[in-house]
Design goal:
Layout: H1 2-25, H2 29-35, H3 63-70, E1 78-80, E2 88-90, H4 91-98, H5 121-135, E3 138-139, H6 142-151, H7 153-169, H8 173-189, H9 194-211, H10 220-243, H11 264-268, E4 278-279, H12 285-294, H13 300-305, H14 319-332, H15 350-353
Antiparallel strand pairs: 1-2, 3-4
C-alpha cells in the first residue's frame, strides 16, 4: 500500500508539467499534442499555433493525455515521431527545446523526495546551491552566519524571515524546491530548534500557495488537481519533519589538521547553522564571507596558509575588520523582494540535470 502511494506521488509531477503548459498557452490538450510533439523548424522560433505548423487534429497523438491522466513521465519514454516513420523522440526534451521555461515544472531534481525514503542531506545541500545559482544568489557560510548570529541576531532573523516568506507567498517551482531542501538540511542539524519549526511552517505555506497558483485554478480540469498538489508536497514536508534528522550523513573528505584546502562544508555546500542568510553577492563576497567567518572561528591551517582579504590587513583579521566584512554581507543580504523572482526562466538547465 505504501509503495503504491509513493508511486502516485511521483505521477503528480508530469501532471503539474502538463497543467503549466495548458495554462501558459490557454490551450486544450489536443493543441499541445498537435504542435509541441513536432521537431523544431530550422531557423524558426517556436510560436504557439504557428511554428512549427500544427498537424491535423484527427492525426494528433495523445502523449500529453497520457502524462495528465496516467502520470507518464515525459523524460523517461520515447514516442514515435509524428512525421518520420520509425523514429522516436523524448517528449520532455522536445518540449524543452520549444519552451525552455517548462523544464522547471517537471521538478526533475526533486523527484527523489517523493520516494519511500529521503535522499542524504548532502544531496539537499547540493541542490540548494544549484538552485541558488539559478537565482543568482549566494548564502553566507557557516562561520560567517554564526558570527552574525553572535553579533546581530535580530537583523539575521529579519533577513532570513523576509526572504523565506516572500518566496513562500508567490512561489515558482525553484522556490518550492529550495525551501524544502533548506528545511531538510536544517532538520538534519537542528531537529528541535525553534528556527527549524519556523521553517517547517514556511514550507507548509509554500505548498499551499503553490497549489493556489493560476496554473491549478484557471479551469475545472486544473482545479481537479489543486488539492492533490498541496497534499503531495505537504507529504514531503511531513517526511522531512518525521525522518529528516535520520537521513544518511554526508561523507566529508578526510584531511589532516594542518592540511590546507577547502573545509568539508565548502566542498559539499552544507550549511551547519540554524539560520540561512541569502545574499545578492557583490564582487568581493567571498572575501567578506571569509573575513567575517574568521571573526567566529579560525582554523589551525589558516595560521599557516591564510592570506589577507579585501577587508583585513593581515591573514588573521581583527574583530573590527570582521565586523566591517559582516556589515558588507548584511548589505548584500538586504535583497529587494522582487530580486528573488528575477531569474532567467528560459535558461536551459538540462546539461546540469541529465
Amino acid at each position: 500500500m505504501g509503495r503504491r502511494a509513493y508511486s502516485e506521488s511521483k505521477r503528480l509531477l508530469p501532471r503539474i508539467w502538463v497543467l503549466r503548459l495548458l495554462h501558459l498557452f490557454q490551450a486544450e490538450l489536443w493543441q499541445l499534442n498537435a504542435q509541441l510533439t513536432l521537431p523544431p523548424e530550422p531557423g524558426e522560433r517556436f510560436q504557439f499555433g504557428v511554428s512549427p505548423c500544427p498537424i491535423d487534429k484527427r492525426l494528433v497523438p495523445n502523449v500529453f493525455q497520457q502524462a495528465l491522466d496516467r502520470g507518464h513521465d515525459p523524460s523517461e519514454r520515447l514516442y514515435l515521431e509524428p512525421k518520420i516513420d520509425g523514429e522516436r523522440y523524448n517528449l520532455f526534451l522536445r518540449v524543452a527545446h520549444h519552451v525552455p521555461s517548462s523544464e522547471d515544472w517537471l521538478f526533475q531534481p526533486f523527484a527523489q523526495y517523493f520516494e519511500d525514503s529521503l535522499p542524504d542531506v548532502a544531496n539537499s545541500a547540493q541542490l540548494v546551491n544549484r538552485l541558488l545559482k539559478r537565482l543568482g544568489l549566494r548564502r553566507m557560510g557557516t562561520s560567517a552566519t554564526e558570527f552574525a548570529i553572535d553579533q546581530i541576531p535580530r537583523l539575521v532573523r529579519r533577513r532570513e524571515e523576509r526572504s523565506m516568506q516572500a518566496m513562500a507567498e508567490a512561489p515558482d517551482p525553484l522556490h518550492v524546491m529550495l525551501l524544502l531542501c533548506l528545511y531538510h538540511e536544517r532538520k538534519w542539524h537542528y531537529p528541535e530548534a525553534a528556527e527549524t519549526w519556523n521553517l517547517d511552517a514556511t514550507c507548509c505555506s509554500i505548498c499551499r500557495n503553490f497549489a493556489a497558483r493560476d496554473e491549478f485554478t484557471w479551469s475545472n480540469q486544473a482545479r481537479a488537481f489543486s488539492s492533490q498538489i498541496e497534499q503531495e508536497f505537504r507529504s514531503v514536508v511531513l517526511k522531512i519533519r518525521h525522518n529528516g534528522h535520520h537521513s544518511a550523513p554526508p561523507q566529508y573528505p578526510v584531511k589532516g589538521m594542518l592540511e590546507p584546502g577547502l573545509r568539508g562544508e565548502d566542498q559539499l555546500g552544507i550549511l551547519r547553522s540554524r539560520r540561512c542568510v541569502l545574499c545578492d553577492p557583490g564582487p568581493f563576497f567571498d572575501d567578506a564571507d571569509l573575513c567575517a567567518g574568521l571573526g567566529y572561528a579560525i582554523p589551525i591551517s589558516h595560521f599557516i596558509y591564510g592570506k589577507p582579504t579585501k577587508y583585513s590587513a593581515g591573514a588573521i583579521p581583527s574583530k573590527d575588520e570582521s565586523r566591517r566584512a559582516l556589515a558588507q554581507l548584511m548589505r548584500d543580504a538586504d535583497i529587494p523582494l522582487r530580486r528573488l523572482f528575477q531569474y532567467d526562466r528560459d535558461e536551459s538547465v538540462l546539461a546540469a540535470l541529465l
